[in-house]
Design brief:
This protein is mainly α and about 325 residues long. The protein has 11 helices and 4 strands, in the order H-H-H-H-H-H-H-H-H-E-E-H-H-E-E.
């Protein structure tokens, strides 16, 4: 009965999910006919974008002038060479820190950050630039620095018809971040009708994933990222931090460890066991865990034609 209540609780949260916001406008959400009836749909291709604005956004994403002391850029915490998350630092919950979420496929989530504070990339980028724990700067201070770069400013004139300003700066970053999708995972290919894309172990893991109720919260195109949920329904999941968090996406999860908002689970094996106990009141055996981990490994997609990779230990 407790397990049934857990799935019912998670499912009831889906009823409160907000409509897909402006973050995702212009993107195609239609699954292939072969995926009909599945709780997960394939990742679409990135939305069309003005190549000049896209190039500006990519340049700004790695521009340390966005920070007060010139040492940090968006890419400092979101490494696009690997998994789109932080390349080394782990969260320190005692200092109020939360583990860095990957920027890959963030455009497919209905809100941004662990606590779902922001509805769009522009607001989130401006908050990060102004954060006292991140870039410690202000848009009003960043714009003059960028305007002084004649070559960059001319690029803004060509793309936006005016000098770089707050709105064009944030728009360019947003356009680039919306392009950071990782389609063509083996699981997506299976959804598209390629029956050999998944191994028997991975298929078994997917059946367990659905049968045990994991897909009540981790579903949709981003396999999560579309509702706020309470952590630790039956047993504690983490020692401290927010009680309710935005359900994270499981896209590329095999290469985005450590896990949970406090980074306390070093491996998927550990994360799967703890989630099952805390959220579903289940104790999984080794065979079940291995199957689930195998399935989660099939969710790794491609960025610019290459598989997303984990951070080297």
């Amino acid at each position: 009965m407790k397990r049934i209540l857990a799935v019912a609780y998670a499912s009831s949260l889906l009823l409160a999910v907000m409509p897909v916001p402006e973050l995702s406008k212009g993107m195609s959400w239609t699954a292939s006919a072969d995926a009909d009836g599945e709780p997960i749909t394939p990742i679409p291709l990135p939305p069309p974008a003005d190549p000049r604005k896209l190039a500006l956004g990519e340049r700004l994403f790695s521009d340390t002038r966005l920070s007060a002391d010139g040492t940090l850029a968006c890419s400092s915490c979101h490494d696009l060479r690997t998994n789109g998350a932080h390349a080394g630092r782990r969260a320190n919950p005692a200092l109020g820190e939360l583990d860095t979420l990957t920027v890959f496929n963030a455009a497919l989530s209905y809100r941004l950050t662990w606590e779902g504070r922001y509805h769009n990339f522009a607001d989130q980028a401006e908050a990060s630039i102004g954060s006292t724990t991140n870039m410690r700067s202000k848009i009003a201070d960043v714009v003059p620095k960028l305007q002084a770069d004649m070559a960059l400013n001319n690029q803004f004139r060509a793309a936006y018809g005016r000098d770089v300003d707050r709105d064009s700066l944030l728009d360019a970053i947003s356009i680039f971040e919306k392009s950071l999708l990782t389609p063509d995972s083996r699981f997506d290919r299976w959804l598209g009708g390629e029956s050999s894309a998944l191994s028997p172990a991975e298929l078994k893991g997917y059946e367990i994933f659905k049968g045990f109720g994991c897909s009540a919260c981790h579903q949709g195109v981003n396999i999560g990222g579309n509702l706020i949920a309470r952590q630790g329904i039956f047993h504690p999941l983490v020692a401290q931090g927010p009680l309710r968090v935005r359900v994270p996406s499981l896209r590329n999860v095999a290469v985005t460890g450590p896990y949970f908002h406090d980074g306390s689970a070093a491996t998927l094996d550990d994360a799967v066991r703890r989630m099952a106990a805390a959220q579903l009141d289940r104790t999984l055996n080794d065979e079940q865990v291995a199957a689930l981990v195998a399935f989660l490994g099939s969710l790794t997609g491609n960025y610019r034609g290459k598989p997303v990779t984990g951070v080297a230990p």
